[in-house]
Amino acid sequence: MKKTLLALGLSLSAVISSADDFSSVKVPQFDVPEIGGGVGLIDQQKEKMIGEKVFREVHHQFSTIQDPWLEDQFMLVFTRILSQTQLGQPIGLIVVKDPQINAFAVPGGLFALNSGMVTSSKSMDEVAGVMAHEIAHVAQRHYSRSQEAFKGQGLLALAGIVVGAVLASKADGELGGAMMLGTQAALLDRQLSYSRNQEREADRIGMQFMYSSGYNPESMADFFETMNRATSRLSFLPDFWLTHPLTTERMSEARLRANQFPHVPLSNNQQEFEIIKWYTSVISDQANEQQLKILAQQKKYAGLVALSAFYLRQGDFVQAQQQLDYAKQMNNEHNLVSLIQADIYLGQNKVDDAYQSIINKQRTMPENRALAYKLVEIYIRQNKPKDAEKMVNRFINKNNRDVSGWLLLQQAANLEKENPMRTINVLRNRAEAQYWSGDEENAIKSLLHAQRLAKGNNAMTAKVDARLKTMQDERKLKI
Fold it and tell me: Where does the UniProt annotation place the signal sequence (predicted)?
């Protein structure tokens, strides 16, 4: 099953450094095949449909991190690289709660990143390298081109291999193995040789995307060499490494290719990455108290913030506040500090204090999803459902796959005691949260219940019927 991951080129990360000023440097010219330009509307719609199906399946099969602040940090990097392509609005980015080093992408612009990839990285540039390589796979339609190579085997079958292969890398490999039975298994041998060329192409084009978006292509070659040295000291190979067997030739090619780019200065945002890295380790249960205490004792800002988050998750609000106060002495303006402070107050039922801790910053940055959603939590605690709904809808209208947003809307709708549509709205919002979390069956049940309650209200019935039909049709897709 490990070879399955190789078959689809599921993951490749790199060590990259950001650059703020590179516009005056001449970029080396590389030949990027114009694959995307010839994609028809029907093919694009099919890829979007498949991407959304896998989006739901990943949420259903894996433990994913639902943290707006962290999701948005990675989305900033993701969209920065994606802007270098001809791809449209992506399906989304999922952070999987898994310590293994892995990542994958599928048609339609869905990208998934294991928390272990982040906690194993030395800079955000490494994470950017993962994204650049995988975005290159999608931009060059590697999976779609594989469909042509396998005559009659659809993209959905290939998407099934994606999910099955990732599942197989976990402890319960039989579940992934079961998904590989039948016609999908016949694809593997032919795909292996094809994917080697795809991997080289993704290396090459990924580096170009990295440079164009301000990251250092040399870090991809650095990553190869770092991992090559690390594996010599291990009794096993990381799943990530097994998906991309590294040859001396490939390492040399990566270094030579990276050296063709002008040097990109190191980023001065290393502290920000350390915050992201250690916060990820806390919410993915990869850090222990002793590790974080050592960092905090060294007066590391990231360690203090992470230790505060650690105690917060344990419900120890006194210790969480103490560590946060130490962090505030160094920097009181970081958004994550404000979010943790609000959560400490909410945990102690100090709702008004939570409101005061976040409102000014949220008003200054109304486009910030994490701050907005924290304020929405406070509005819900203050019994202000209309304010909550208005704020969440701004984000849901831009991304209807936002599970966190739908859960907040469900809570807000439940507060509207005088609204005759209250129960129906709760069911509709719950259905969306269930659906995009991969619980398609219960999402449809929720809408069927809403449908029964909406009888007699033509406008509401029409809305429920239309959404129900879409869900039922999309559920028929099997991977």
Answer: 1-19
- Per-residue pLDDT tens listing for the chain (479 residues): 333 333 333 333 322 222 233 233 344 444 433 333 344 444 677 778 888 998 999 899 889 999 999 999 999 999 899 889 888 778 889 999 998 877 888 777 788 889 988 998 888 888 888 888 888 888 887 665 555 544 444 555 555 655 655 555 554 444 343 333 333 333 334 443 336 777 788 889 999 999 999 988 887 777 777 666 655 554 444 555 555 556 677 778 878 888 898 888 766 588 999 999 999 999 999 999 999 999 999 999 999 999 999 999 999 999 999 999 999 999 999 999 999 999 999 999 999 999 999 999 999 999 999 999 999 999 999 999 999 999 999 999 999 999 999 999 999 999 999 999 999 999 999 999 999 999 999 999 999 999 999 999 999 999 999 999 999 999 987 65
Helix, strand or coil for residue 165?
Answer: helix
Residue 134 among the catalytic residues? yes
In three-state form (DSSP H/G/I as H, E/B as E, the rest C), the secondary structure along 314-376 is HCCHHHHHHHHHHHHHHCCCCHHHHHHHHHHHHHCCCHHHHHHHHHHHHHHCCCCHHHHHHHH
Strand ranges inside 61-102, DSSP E = 92-96
Residue given tokens 């067997």 in the structure block: 245
- The torsion of the CA quartet 113, 410, 108, 96, rounded to 10 degrees, works out to 10
Tokens of 352: 């008004």
Residue 449 known to bind ligand: no
Identify the three-state secondary structure at position 111: strand
CB 115 within 8 A of CB 96: yes
CB count in 10 Å sphere of residue 459: 8
Token digits of residue 357: 């801790």
Please tell me which residue in 203, 239, 343, 440 is annotated as part of the active site: 203
DSSP SS3 for 255: helix
Cβ atoms 431, 474 nearer than 8 A:
no
Per the document, the length of the chain is: 479
133 labeled binding residue: yes
Element (H, E) at 206: helix 188-212
Question: To which residue do tokens 């449909």 refer?
Answer: 49
Catalytically annotated residue among 57, 134, 201, 402: 134
| 253 CB-contact burial (10 Å; exposed 0-12 / middle 13-18 / buried 19+) | middle
Query: What are the tokens at 441?
Result: 């069956």
Instruction: Count the neighbouring beta carbons within 10 Å of the beta carbon of residue 397.
Output: 10
Q: What separation, in Å, do the N-terminal and C-terminal C-alpha atoms of the chain show? A: 17
Residue at token pair 């580096």: 207
By C-alpha distance, which of 460, 457, 365, 443 is closest to 403? 443
* Cβ proximity of 90 and 82 under 8 Å: yes
